[in-house]
Specification:
The complex is a heterodimer of chains A (14) and B (257). Chain A has 14 residues and is mainly β. Chain A has one strand at residues 12-13. Chain A starts with 11 loop residues before the first strand and ends with a strand. In chain B, a hairpin with a 5-residue loop joins β7 (87-92) and β8 (98-104). In chain B, the strands form three sheets. Chain B has a nine-stranded antiparallel beta sheet with strand order 6-2-3-4-19-18-17-11-15. Chain B is built from four helices and 19 strands. Chain B has helices at residues 10-19, 72-79, 141-152, 209-215; strands at 2-6, 25-31, 34-40, 46-53, 59-62, 66-71, 87-92, 98-104, 111-117, 126-127, 135-140, 157-163, 166-173, 176-182, 196-199, 203-208, 224-229, 235-241, 245-251. By secondary structure, chain B is mainly beta. In chain B, α3 runs antiparallel to α4. The chains are: A mainly beta (14), B mainly beta (257). Chain A binds chain B through residues 1-14, and chain B through 40, 43-47, 124-129, 157, 206, 208, 233-234, 250-252, 254-257. β1 of chain A pairs antiparallel with β10 of chain B.
Amino acid sequence: VLPQPPLPAFFTGA
Amino acid sequence: MFEARLIQGSLLKKLVDAIKELCTEVNWDISNSGINMQSMDGSHVCLVAFNLRADGFDHFRCDRPLTLGINLGNLAKILKCSGSNDIITMKADDNGDTLTLMFESEKQDRITDVDLKLMSIESEHLGIPDQDYSAETSMPSSEYQRIVRDLSSIGDTVNISATKEGIKFSAMGDIGTANITLRQTSSADKEEENVKIEMKEPVLLTFALRYLNNFAKATPLSSTVQVFLTKDLPVQVNYNIQDLGYVKYYLAPKIEE
């Protein structure tokens, strides 16, 4: 099962 | 003072139904350009954003920017009291702690008004960069709904790959494997029934089907859906709401460690 990284790892804070 | 009147009130009901299971407590940002929301789901794996443009409303007034903290489950309960052809008006005072919703029947012979208690919600705002997508697909929203539903009976995750051949959805599970490939079409009677694929580079990504299925709750809002795939980045699933705005979902891909 592949791990599921959280979204903030991809998008920066505004 | 905020006031917004939506003739096609059912759109608001459909919108709330499309997002309430992913996000329970959210802030709606109101300005004179319209209503915006951005919220991550509880597990911080996906993000839901919508925009309702002021000019999509029959009447829209917002004297100063407001943030309304809303429990979407409670709002959905209230919207259940509206009829499918009702006109919906929302109102809030600048420093108030309620959102007033008014439902008028088509003939305007029955009027319901309900005050929803607002709450103070701390929320993070994510900056989403403009991305150069590897592949952009437009398809009937019913087709997307069917693909993610059908593959959910096979496995928990789906590999989505875009190549010259088309866009392929593959699931694997204990009972076996399944692949669904969509090819570009141009022969449908209506433009929105076609599958369109614009590919810059081949791409393969893996996603949790549970979330992709949840996004399909927006199907009643739009006849088409756009799926944007970018190497190593979250997928964007985009439903345009005709003459009013959009709802967009972003889901982080599963990655090899």
